[in-house]
Write a structure and sequence with these properties.
The structure is a homodimer.
Chain A: H1 9-16, H2 19-22, H3 31-36, E1 45-49, H4 55-62, E2 67-72, H5 75-84, E3 90-94, E4 107-113, H6 122-132, E5 133-144, H7 146-149, E6 157-158, E7 164-168, E8 175-181, E9 183-190, H8 193-203, E10 206-212, H9 217-222, E11 235-241
Chain lengths: ~240, ~240
């Protein structure tokens, strides 16, 4: 079975205190940009891969989606999702995204927020996502940006001019990166941006939009602590069509 | 008129001593990857934007292209191209890519090597490229990678562990970057990778391949000095179809 950091008690506690966990979509600064890449959800069949607490699933239901399914590897996450969901109608299922089987041509939209960088065999998952979408169906996802993931020692550096920089190395060396984020030894899988996009195109997707997320002027005025996100991208948002 | 660094005597002298200038396509380490993205050229009408010494134009002619046109802003470059071209059949024309007019639906392939980062209004040029291609025609180009261009002070840093890193800042701040490369005050235009790809898609292109070029193991064995190109990408290679 794949790594399941979310059921590590320390990770779960730390995760539950993140703004995006407590406040939901409104606590995620990239949400407006990601939302703008989504189709109108009314009447759609929606699958969320790595649904966590189910914030997106609930929003999709509010938008009038016909069917909303959330998958997550973490039983604790899904338990919380079911508690937080006021009414029924959303199917939460425990599943390992490395080995999950998905029904053919069954969804109009597959969504995933910041989960794909934990997947070792992402090409296999993207092939399943392609096949579970109906022709013309949409894939919209966020993933940690390769610039953020690549370094052997990710972190800010202040240069001799006082300029904050993000030192990159190992960009072309794809594979696992072990970091200490909320828990020790969290494994993420670095791929170049080119590899990710070529994998999508090679799987049969047509790219629609690629957003290396950074804060807008308005957001920066409201949350000055996001200024460093102008220096290097932390997240990548992608939309594609089957 | 746009910046024309190539007619600066110092720049021209330095440029003429680069391996890729002296040895042509074989002196450019990214050429095999770029070549693999090209369609078969036999019978095609080909336009090279920023043709320089005409190495690609000559190769295209050798491959059996039906028509080969090379545009460059530099009269000195074109003079050298005409001298180096053994036979006729290639039309070399001086043109400013910021303001050039291109005939509609007249080419099967538009090629450009490391010129687009000098273009301030790249969206306007890409729209003209789209319209000068026949439907189904190909655009294949290389450009300096945004990771390479973004920093206010681009250059390697050796961290306290002895690791060579490439410190990034200002990635989200698009616009001019002034560097001293062969001549002082050379102006390049930084755009994020997302902006570049979205501009292409918004112009009507379908993306086919995105290569953040890095050396293969074989190339690295032959040219160990390319090892640093594994740490961060310097060039981006893109193919797209009208």
């Amino acid at each position: 079975m794949a790594q399941n950091i979310y059921d590590d008690p320390g990770f779960f506690e730390g995760y539950s205190r993140l703004r995006r966990s407590m406040e939901g979509l409104a606590g995620a600064p990239e949400w407006p940009a990601l939302r703008a890449m989504l189709p109108a959800l009314r009447g759609l069949r929606v699958l969320d891969l790595g649904c966590g607490y189910g914030w997106f699933c609930r929003w999709a239901q509010e938008q009038g989606a016909r069917q909303v399914d959330g998958l997550d590897v973490s039983a604790r996450m899904l338990e919380r999702a079911r508690q937080l969901t006021p009414a029924g109608g959303i199917a939460y299922t425990q599943a390992d995204l490395e080995t999950v089987e998905l029904p053919r041509a069954s969804y109009d939209l597959v969504y995933s927020s910041l989960a794909f960088h934990y997947i070792e065999d992402l090409p296999a998952l993207l092939a399943k996502v392609h096949d579970t979408l109906v022709p013309g169906g949409a894939l919209v996802f966020s993933i940690e940006h390769p610039i953020y993931m690549a370094p052997s020692h990710p972190g800010w550096h202040v240069d001799e001019r006082g300029q904050k920089t993000w030192p990159i190395n190992g960009y072309q060396v794809e594979g696992p990166r072990t970091t200490d984020w909320l828990a020790q030894g969290v494994i993420k899988y670095h791929r170049t941006l080119g590899t990710l996009l070529n994998t999508l195109m090679g799987t049969g997707f047509t790219l629609r939009h690629v957003d290396e997320w950074g804060p807008t002027d308005e957001l920066l005025a409201a949350q000055p602590e996001l200024a460093e996100e102008r220096e290097r991208p932390m997240m990548l948002l992608v939309s594609a069509r089957r």
